[in-house]
């Protein structure tokens, strides 16, 4: 009798186990952020799985340089994961247009994201959003706070204060601005696109380029080139041959006062610099009250339109649209900031300084990333070359602006004369 009861109990446990296994859904995330693996496994996913014990999530990244090709091969072969990490703008838009990403218009939580946040993962006509915005990166300036304190330098708020500060730093025998032009993209991304929104009034100017009412060679876009040109005397010796990693190393070693930055640099400097750091937002032109920041959309998450686990995938994506995920992700990756319309508090003081600017300034994204870089010559690539040429002194601000505008007029109908 005892043996019979034991057999019955074992069979019942097996049945329950099989039922539970059948009830559990496993979701796989495709991503290029292979450096984030431990963060997802140790910090983010355990929180979700504790709240949804019947959904297991596997973070399965691919090397960044291989991601696009590998993902396309998996999608064509029907082996792609349930959730797809989305790069901004045209790459992900192409995936949606090809039927590989599902529309998320009705996803609970999508109302937590504004138009700028969704701009990188929405159709041109605004009818379909296809990825949940995860994070942006913010531009500004990181400075050596110890050096500032020793010399009595103060953080600038206006353009004239900024230029006076650079002159004071130079007079003290220090390098004012740690940036090179060899890679070109650095000149545009941490230079032109960093300070530019204050001149072209953020979204007003950017959308003006798209509808043809604004041009690169006049108004705020030209003024931004003129402001960038004024940096030239304050760059390091030999900056024309200085690459991005060189700039990072130079600042980390305390060999310069100010680093024109993207917030993604925070983790690098936290690990390498042995001095206190601070940050200040791009100074506004004198007399201008409203400030603008480049709060650039960087990463999002979408759903494989052909996943067999759509309900579980939607549950996960809806959780990603919550304040809980926003705080988890932003604190786990200092310098990558949630795009949701709720306040987040960050443990890293430098990251908290960057994100606090959202409460003071209007956010925009880089001018060339939406629509304007689909043709040839590529608008973003032209901005790289033009910004580097201005800093190198091989082009005037007007010549650089004319070159960029001319390139856009060659293929983009709203800008054609």
Assign a percent range to the helix content: 40-55%
Number of domains: 2
Radius of gyration: 24 Å
In sequence order, what are the helices and strands, one letter per element? HEHEHEHHEHHHHHHHEHEEHHHEHH
* CATH H-level homologous superfamily name of the largest domain: Periplasmic binding protein-like II
Strand content: 5-15%
Biggest beta-sheet profile? 8 strands, mixed
**How would the global form be characterised?**
globular
Low-confidence stretches: 1-21
Q: Total helix count?
A: 18
Identify the quaternary structure here. single chain
* Mean of all residue-level pLDDT scores: 94
Supply the key terms.
single chain, 417 residues, alpha/beta, D-Maltodextrin-Binding Protein, domain 2, 2 domains, 8-stranded mixed beta sheet, 18 helices, 8 strands, globular
Q: Short summary of the structure?
A:
With about 425 residues, the protein is an alpha/beta fold. It folds into two domains: about 170 residues, D-Maltodextrin-Binding Protein, domain 2 (3-Layer(aba) Sandwich); about 210 residues, Periplasmic binding protein-like II (D-Maltodextrin-Binding Protein, domain 2, 3-Layer(aba) Sandwich), CATH 3.40.190. Helices cover about 45% and strands about 15% of the residues.
């Amino acid at each position: 009798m005892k043996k019979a009861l034991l057999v019955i109990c074992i069979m019942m446990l097996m049945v329950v186990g099989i039922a539970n296994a059948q009830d559990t859904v496993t979701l796989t995330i495709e991503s290029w952020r292979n450096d984030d693996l431990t963060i997802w496994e140790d910090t983010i996913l355990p929180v979700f799985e504790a709240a949804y014990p019947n959904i297991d999530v596997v973070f399965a990244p691919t090397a960044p340089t291989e991601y696009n090709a590998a993902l396309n091969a998996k999608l064509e072969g029907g082996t792609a994961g349930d959730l797809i990490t989305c790069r901004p703008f045209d790459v992900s838009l192409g995936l949606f247009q090809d039927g590989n990403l599902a529309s998320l218009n009705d996803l609970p939580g999508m109302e937590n994201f504004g138009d700028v946040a969704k701009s990188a993962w929405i159709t041109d006509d605004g009818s379909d959003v296809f990825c949940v915005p995860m994070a942006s990166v913010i531009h500004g300036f990181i400075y050596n706070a110890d050096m500032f304190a020793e010399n009595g330098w103060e953080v600038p708020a206006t353009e004239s204060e900024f230029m006076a500060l650079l002159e004071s730093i130079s007079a003290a025998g220090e390098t004012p601005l740690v940036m090179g032009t060899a890679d070109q993209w650095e000149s545009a991304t941490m230079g032109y696109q960093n300070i530019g929104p204050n001149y072209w009034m953020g979204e007003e100017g950017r959308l003006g380029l798209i509808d043809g009412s604004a041009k690169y060679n006049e108004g705020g876009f030209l003024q931004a080139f003129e402001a960038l040109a004024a940096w030239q005397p304050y760059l390091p010796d030999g900056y024309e041959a200085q690459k991005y990693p060189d700039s990072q190393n130079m600042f980390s070693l305390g060999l310069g006062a100010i680093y024109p930055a993207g917030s993604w640099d925070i983790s690098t400097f936290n690990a390498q610099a042995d001095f206190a750091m601070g940050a200040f937002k791009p100074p506004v032109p004198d007399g201008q009250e409203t400030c603008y920041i480049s709060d650039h959309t960087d990463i999002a998450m979408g759903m494989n339109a052909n996943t067999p686990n759509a309900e579980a995938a939607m549950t996960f994506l809806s959780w990603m649209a919550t304040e809980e995920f926003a705080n988890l992700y932003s604190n786990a990756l200092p310098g990558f900031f949630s795009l949701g319309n709720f306040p987040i508090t960050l443990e890293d003081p430098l990251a908290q300084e960057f994100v606090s600017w959202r409460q003071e300034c209007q956010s925009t994204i880089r001018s060339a990333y939406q629509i304007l870089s689909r043709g040839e010559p590529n608008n973003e690539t032209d901005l790289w070359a033009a910004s580097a040429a201005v800093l190198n002194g091989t082009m005037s601000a007007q010549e650089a602006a004319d070159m960029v505008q001319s390139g856009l007029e060659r293929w983009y109908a709203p800008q054609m004369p």
